């Protein structure tokens, strides 16, 4: 896979106002489906949001899941392992935040960070990276079989130019400055390495069974629509 060939913008002909209207309908439908999931308690859903810094993970949570009953949905954001977590295998901390039956669990970043970051910064050999990917496949298969967990993976795909613009906005807008982290600039400096690392995990989808959904995310309104649409389609398959 070459991410340069994957679009980051909506297809031609997409009308913003029409898409916004459809998104509102989808988020209402998502709320209904989540209530059914919660009441039946037969399945659980793990939503994985991955993407480079400023790709819109927080915004997706806010705009797509804003109308979902918080009793049946929770969010966990992942950063570097802390002093306790680093003493265990890399999936130990993840397993504590998988969804119970009836729940939607959103992971803002995920266990894939423990493959992406070592790949980008050259901290693990290619063999060790492959071993971690294999462990992830086993982990996800275990969740699917043992707890009937539907795993939905979203890669929020933005261009280097769009990311630079968003980071600049964070620095200049007092209401968004809190989002800025000096590490955000690392992505611009290592853009090629980040793209190669993501291509590695996205290419691995054929062997994992749970395919990634590549979401064009330069336009936030289209990103929200695509994520909401896929969520509703997959939940309907699961529940109806």
TrEMBL record:
GO terms for biological process: polyphosphate metabolic process. One of its GO terms (molecular function) is polyphosphate kinase activity. Pfam families: PPK2. Gene3D superfamilies: P-loop containing nucleotide triphosphate hydrolases. InterPro entries: P-loop_NTPase, Polyphosphate_phosphotransfera, PPK2-rel_1, PPK2-related. Residues 15-236 form the Polyphosphate kinase-2-related domain. Keywords: Kinase, Transferase. It comes from the Bacteria. Signal peptide: none annotated. Belongs to the polyphosphate kinase 2 (PPK2) family. Class I subfamily. This is Polyphosphate kinase. It comes from Leptospira gomenensis.
């Amino acid at each position: 896979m070459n991410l340069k060939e994957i679009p980051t913008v909506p297809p031609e002909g997409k009308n913003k106002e029409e898409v916004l209207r459809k998104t509102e309908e989808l988020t209402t439908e998502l709320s209904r489906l989540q209530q059914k999931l919660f009441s039946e308690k037969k399945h659980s859903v793990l939503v994985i949001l991955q993407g480079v810094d400023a790709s819109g993970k927080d915004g997706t949570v806010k705009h797509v899941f804003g109308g979902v009953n918080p009793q049946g949905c929770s969010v966990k954001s992942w950063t570097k392992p802390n002093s306790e977590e680093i003493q265990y295998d890399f999936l130990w901390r993840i397993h504590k935040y998988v969804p119970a039956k009836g729940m939607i669990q959103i992971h803002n970043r995920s266990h894939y960070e423990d493959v992406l970051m070592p790949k980008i910064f050259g901290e693990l050999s290619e063999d060790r990276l492959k071993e971690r990917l294999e462990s992830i496949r086993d982990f996800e298969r275990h969740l699917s079989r043992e707890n009937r967990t539907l795993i939905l993976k979203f890669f929020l795909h933005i261009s280097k130019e769009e990311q630079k613009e968003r980071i600049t906005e964070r620095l200049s807008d007092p209401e968004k400055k809190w989002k800025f982290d000096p590490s955000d600039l690392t992505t611009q400096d290592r853009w090629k390495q980040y793209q190669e690392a993501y291509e590695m995990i996205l290419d691995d989808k054929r062997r994992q069974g749970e395919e990634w959904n590549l979401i064009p995310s330069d336009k936030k309104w289209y990103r929200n629509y695509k994520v909401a649409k896929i969520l509703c389609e997959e939940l309907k398959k699961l529940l109806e």
